[in-house]
Structure prediction request, 656 residues.
Amino acid sequence: MSVNPGQPVVAVVQRIEIKKLRQGENLILGFSIGGGMDQDPGQNPFSEDKTDKGIYVTRISPGGPADVAGLMMGDKIMQVNGWDMTMVTHDQARKRLTKKKEDVVRLLVTRKSLEEAVKQSMGKKYPCYKQ
Amino acid sequence: MDNESTYSGYSYKSSHSRSSRKHRERRDRHRSKSRDSSIRDKSVTIQTPGEPLLDAESTRGDDRDDNWGETTTVVTGTSVDSISQEDLTRVCKDLEDSAPLECRRYLGLALGGILGLFAFLTPLAFLALPQLLWRDSLDPCGTPCEGLYISLAFKLLILLISTWALFLRPPRATLPRFFVYRCLLLVLVFLFVASYWLFYGVRVLEPRETDYRGIVGYAASLVDALLFIQYLALVLLEVRHLRPAFCLKVVRSADGASRFYNVGHLSIQRAAVWLLQNYYRDFPVYNPALLNLPKSILSKKTSAFKIYNLGEENSTSNSTGQSRAMIAAAARRRDNSHNEYYYEEAEVERRIRKRKARLVVAVEEAFTHIKRHQDDEGTASSPKHPREVMDPREAAQAIFAPMARAMQKYLRATRQQSYHSMESIINHLQFCITHNMTPKAFLERYLSPGPTLQYLDNSRGRQWTLVSEEPVTAALRQGQVFCLRRLDFSLVVTVTPLPFLSLGEEFVDPKSHKFVMKLQSETSV
Prediction:
């Protein structure tokens, strides 16, 4: 993950598909998010760069849909169903994830270990998925 | 003993009355002409009456005394009539300093008083002479004259009071050259009064003028003009130099003590006077005993190499070569003197602190032995143990004994023993007891070296020499450097102008101070 203002963000991402679970009236995903454009980035325990105002996964309820799908705590969410999540406010992020009409959310998430894994498996040269 | 000296003499502030300046100027011009020829560089002496007696002795430290006998050659042929070199210099200085200055200090004041009185009495003379000489032929003058009389009287009164307040002060310093503004004002006053007398003589006395109202008006205008001259004097002598324009850095050459002072537009000599008045208050007393590195550290360097000259008779050409070789060799040697200096310093510091602790404890204990006797206790104290009532002197002597040893050791450690005799310590103790001071207040005088003024006796004046490359009546400018020299040290003064300040403005609306909390929300989805 590299954050240069004005430059396209380059990161190794993983596609995660979560099926929403119906609980009474609500459709839940089973994780919590933190961060956003209007939040204080210094408080984020998961980010490497403390000026990063992206959306991070802060908690995963064990056994929930997110856990089952492979989402991990500390992941940064880059896209939700094609919508960008790197430059959104906290509330906008929440809305995009909790649309009542959608049953499935397809996330692009990134984490540090992804880059390491790709580096190890491909040797020196490795493909980058550009946003 | 004092190593420092104050000086007394004229200060720029305490100008005498305007009239005295003129006379002083005349005298000074004569004197400075004769003196200038004898002094080659532009160093002029600020002379004071006084006593430089101890100056010759002041720089002798204890160690120098010890070595003196061994290293000097013996002067043979001394008789009982001969006097030593020191006595000679002392006598010369006495002759130099004592007689002329006493007169000089007060003569100026006396002459000034005369001219001032003359200027003051002139309007009264203008009024009185026609009345005395040709009273019968004068036109009668009614109410307008009386109005003028009253205003004249009050103006003269104000003139008198303000002259007394501003100008009639005992002089505190003698300046080397005459004080330009003062002389200017004196000349102005003299010219003024002289020209008024001239016109009076020609227009009034000769033709026996009969218009008395005109004469009174003439006298009133003289008094007005004198008041305006006094206003000018006030502005030039007292007010102009108040607004700060320069910053003077003063460094004492002997031990590096330095201060910064802000002054206004002054001439060099006036700035020197002002500076010295502050010097006595701000600078810690110069203690020559504190300066030297311990001999043990310095002497090791020089005794490393000896160079022998084998077989050559004239060694004049080799001497520089020898010294260079020695210096080079000494530089190559591994130099550990800084180590020794550091440890020596630490050791001295520790010793001082230990002795200070002992002193503080001893003094505290000593002070617990006495307390103030209250009169109403008389009946309460039992007749079996009558307490002896002492006055402060006896009380001081009584409690001095237990602390004397600790005090002496502490003063030795800080090398202050020459400044405080036993008598002075007991006097100070008596003073502190009288004023209900605590032991800490008593010790404040000994724990830190005080300002020089504390160690002086004011009965004598002090002599300083102003050394400058420019004439000392020149105004202060950026980058000037001048020195004020005493016998064993000097103060080097550098002049820098204060920076020009450009002040801007920014208005802050008090309602604009608003704050928000930093958000850190976590939402579960």
Observations:
- Residues 112-122 of chain A form the longest helix (11 residues).
